[in-house]
Amino acid sequence: MDPIDRYLDRVCRGLGGTRSLRQHLRQGLREHLLDAAAEHRASGMSEEDAFIKPIDDFGGPEPVQTELAAQSGQQVRTQTGRAPLG
What we know:
The structure is a single chain. This protein is mainly α. The protein has four helices and no strands. Helix 1 runs antiparallel to helix 2 and helix 1 packs across helix 4. It is elongated and about 40 Å long.
């Protein structure tokens, strides 16, 4: 399993909402991370670093979960049930 899939597992494990919504969000995040990795690779970064850099830029799973919940109109909540901050 590549670093992006491991990261997405951690992000999506903490989300509530319907399965189809979580899958949709995961696919969107995956595409964004892969696009960023391709850009880093094209700029000369090693393949390994090109996959790790977008993950570092996104930050930890919890802030991403909160952002997803905010962007989706709170249809997605973290497993703690807390509403997004802000």
